[in-house]
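I'll show a record.
***
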Amino acid sequence: MEKNNEKYQVDHSFLSEPVPYGELSLVQVGRLFLNENGGVSEHTHLNWFELTAVTDGEGEVVTNGHRIPVERGDLFFSYPGDFHAITTGDSHPLKFDYLAFWTEDEGLAFRLLDIEQRHPTAESRRFRDGRIDAMIADILAEWESGEPSCEMVETALRYVVLRVLHDFEESTASHAEIADSKRALCYRIMTYIDSHIFSVDSLKDLTDVMNYRYSYLSEVFRKTTGDTIAHYFRDRRLEAGKLLLGEGKMTVSEVAEKLGYSSVYSFSRSYKALFGVCPTGLGRKQK
């Protein structure tokens, strides 16, 4: 994640080795004050959820190409696989805390997956809860102390996740009406693909997720958007690969494997067809 024009930043990042706290793992926690016209450039979320808690100023959270205005007191919930960026204006620069987590607990994982499916749109993921703001600040303060209390962090992190689940589960009914529209169905398909870009094994998985036959989903998507689901999935998968290679942390082989390609050759051929250049040399030096 590249941060541009920041005034002040506290960043505790454990992306490669998340710190376990009970059934939850802390992936990162930090605070960022942006300069005028600064921002966080677009990057991908891997297998973690992230909360952005705006503490002051105004700006936008950009998720999968959709710009969501945020201001002081707003929270935004990001999903695994999101394409994520943050921008700020020049009159009231954005200040925010952030916290990312993951869980191996089947019960919590199921409830979080349910949130993804019931609240797919970027617009539905902005909310407010002062208790979550306070707990994120407490977790950050523990890490800034130099000797974070495992008991304190575990309790606060669990509370944050339970509050998120409560807030979204309580508001599910207000979003139920969007499921009937064909345009909204297409948006759900695109959002699901965007959020599961690293884990979709087959587009036929959409049948179980959307509760419609794949042939029906394919027909509605083509007639509504003028594109095919397969074409959309291919482009978004390659765009994710381009971002990963641009970060310079993975080899071309690693990115191809991460995206589920059968071989580096298959990935490289598709990449060149879309972007006009080969991916070789964009990531770390290949082993």
User: Anything to note?
Assistant: The chain is about 40% helix and 25% strand.
